[in-house]
Recover the amino acids of this structure.
């Protein structure tokens, strides 16, 4: 469901209204071939966006041949028109590095002056290319240049309205993405030139950001608002786009149902999204269709409708043969198929697909790193070229200043007595202005540095979380291949402990404060993960109360392991031979002392319970981590078991 804006753009391209007789493929290529030199470029410029996409490979190969045309190269304007056409081709082909090189070369050409509207187009394409390569510092620089042009009154491409909110979303700063997108929607509503699809699409994106930020009620609100706006603006006059957008939004609502565990309600919504997507048959949207089919298969697995899940997997396999399927989607397909095979007791085949998912995921990460390194190398070369151009321009300016200085000196000698006072006054004003500029520049540098440090810290937590999840995945693969039940339990316990630490890092990189963990949110996710891992026939209700409690990472990690040990122990032992049970987790603070109470209404502790005589890694871990927190452990055996831990925050 990511890249929603690109999907909507693709849907727009699928439903164009054609007036008159469109040129066929052969006709366009024949017409281009019949032209000569600069006329070929003019013909390319006259084509519609759709026609350029339909003949992309042909146009790319033939425009490249024009780079050796002496007549075109001898004329600056003609040469720049050709470079601009090739740069646009790179945009269509999604070759981000070539896009950056081509447009930077156009911008650095001081002999060619193009209008601000065209410069805005170039900057928007550079912004998108840098964003795709995760070069966020360059995106921020481009944003400032775009802001300058917008202040001058240059029109900003409407369908690029959400680039800034999209940047926040890529950094997992969904709170900021929501605020930014709301501001962008206000700007769109003020623009009379907006098309009828853009507002419903924007509300759909806003709902998606609320969904990613775990604000379910707000996500439902904006998804429904998107459907209402689409029905008002599109249903009567543009049913094709209405049908496509409503299918997409309903698919998103299906994901909300999945997140709430209502898989039965999610199934028809996801099926409607798939039905619309398959009817469109747009290669640009194949990836989204396959993802939705995988989600549908997951729902049927959860509902134990294995035959339907098998049909979903087979449909996904058919779609995967099409173009435009991302490696990440293939990873999701392998994992879902492994889950289905595991449910069908085909453990060997499940292991094979889990292994495929693991290998492909590792390959994706390696490829991203190589691409980032290559991008940095290209950017270094571009910066060297920019520095050379700036030096040449500086030398020219120095010579011009020298000439002007001689003239000014001559005039100064003639008018010395008259202009002496004005000259001194101007010097003082210049010094003041220069100091003001230096202060402003330093302030900007400090702001950029703070943003960069925030991004780097977020990336560290994100990578630690990913590495821990890889370790957890390896343990899961190992568990599938082990027959000894005791060893399986030990591996599962180790995996649970790793997941509890990974959740800490996930909570940190998704929050604005990287030094504190909000324990109410963290415990909710931890309990959900434990419930999934220890899927029991006993109906266990868990209440969590830790409002306003925030702990430093040095305290949060050992405390998370303690809670994980106690709660998993409750799942395994407290409710044997019981149909239901309750667990309460209460974390409070009084002065500088924190108190954690975990209580269940299960079978209670053995009569002769003594933790010192237990041969239990789990309880040893609880005692050791409590000492690390400079705390103490106590327990009660009344109507179940209560464990009370007091400790200090080590942060």
């Amino acid at each position: 469901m990511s890249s929603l804006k690109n999907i909507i753009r693709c849907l727009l391209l699928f439903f164009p209204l054609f007036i008159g007789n469109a040129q066929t493929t052969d006709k366009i290529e024949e017409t281009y071939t019949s032209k000569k030199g600069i006329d070929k470029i003019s013909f390319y410029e006259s084509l519609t966006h759709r026609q350029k996409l339909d003949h992309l490979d042909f146009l790319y190969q033939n425009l490249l041949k024009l780079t050796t045309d002496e007549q075109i190269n001898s004329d600056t304007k003609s040469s720049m028109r050709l470079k601009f056409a090739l740069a646009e081709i790179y945009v269509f082909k999604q070759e981000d590095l070539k896009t950056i090189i081509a447009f930077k070369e156009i911008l650095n050409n001081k002999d060619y002056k193009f209008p601000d509207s065209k410069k805005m187009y170039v900057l928007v394409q550079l912004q998108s290319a840098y964003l795709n390569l995760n070069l966020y510092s360059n995106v921020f620089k481009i944003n400032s240049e775009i802001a300058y042009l917008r202040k001058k009154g240059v029109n900003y491409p409407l369908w690029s309205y959400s680039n800034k909110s999209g940047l926040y979303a890529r950094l997992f700063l969904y709170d900021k993405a929501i605020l930014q997108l709301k501001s962008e929607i206000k700007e769109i509503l003020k623009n009379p030139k907006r098309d009828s699809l853009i507002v419903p699409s924007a509300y759909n994106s806003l709902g998606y950001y609320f969904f990613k930020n775990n604000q379910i009620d707000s996500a439902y609100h904006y998804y429904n608002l998107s459907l209402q706006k689409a029905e008002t603006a599109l249903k009567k006059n543009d049913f094709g786009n209405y049908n496509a957008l409503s299918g997409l939004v309903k698919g998103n609502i299906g994901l909300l149902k999945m997140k709430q565990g209502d898989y039965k309600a999610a199934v028809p919504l996801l099926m409607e999204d798939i039905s619309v997507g398959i009817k469109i048959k747009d290669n640009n949207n194949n990836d989204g269709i396959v993802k939705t089919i995988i989600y549908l298969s997951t729902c049927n697995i959860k509902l134990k409708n294995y035959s339907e899940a098998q049909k979903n997997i087979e449909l996904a396999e058919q779609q995967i043969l099409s173009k435009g399927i991302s490696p990440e989607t293939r990873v999701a397909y392998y994992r879902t198929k492994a889950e289905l095979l595991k449910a069908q007791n085909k453990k060997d085949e499940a292991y094979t697909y889990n292994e495929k998912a693991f290998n492909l995921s590792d390959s994706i990460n390696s490829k991203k790193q190589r691409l980032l390194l290559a991008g940095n190398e290209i950017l270094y070369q571009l910066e060297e070229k920019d520095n050379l151009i700036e030096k040449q321009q500086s030398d020219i300016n120095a010579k011009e200043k020298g000439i002007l200085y001689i003239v000014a000196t001559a005039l100064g000698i003639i008018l010395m007595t008259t202009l002496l006072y004005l000259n001194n006054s101007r010097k003082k004003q210049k010094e003041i202005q220069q100091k003001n500029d230096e202060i402003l520049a330093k302030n900007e540098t400090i702001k950029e540095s703070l943003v960069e440090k925030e991004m780097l810290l977020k990336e560290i937590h994100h990578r630690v979380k990913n590495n821990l999840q890889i370790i957890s995945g390896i343990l899961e693969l190992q568990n599938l291949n082990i027959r000894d039940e005791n060893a399986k339990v030990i591996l599962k316990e180790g995996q649970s402990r790793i997941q509890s630490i990974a959740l800490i890092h996930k909570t940190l990189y998704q929050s604005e404060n990287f030094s504190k963990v909000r324990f109410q949110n963290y415990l909710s996710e931890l309990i959900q993960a434990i419930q999934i891992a220890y899927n029991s026939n006993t109906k266990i209700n868990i209440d969590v109360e830790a409002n306003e409690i925030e702990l430093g990472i040095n305290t949060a990690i050992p405390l998370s392991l303690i809670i994980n040990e106690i709660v998993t122990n409750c799942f395994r032992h407290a409710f044997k031979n019981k149909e239901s049970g309750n667990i309460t987790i209460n974390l409070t603070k009084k002065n500088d002392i924190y108190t954690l109470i975990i209580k269940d209404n299960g079978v209670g502790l053995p009569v002769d319970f003594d933790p010192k005589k237990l041969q239990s890694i789990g309880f040893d871990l609880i005692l050791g981590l409590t000492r690390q927190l400079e705390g103490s452990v106590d327990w009660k055996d009344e109507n179940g078991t209560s464990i009370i831990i007091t400790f200090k925050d080590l942060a």
User: Anything to note?
Assistant: Residues 339 and 503 are 22 Å apart (CA to CA). Confidence is low (pLDDT under 50) at residues 1-24. Residues 347-414 form the longest helix (68 residues).
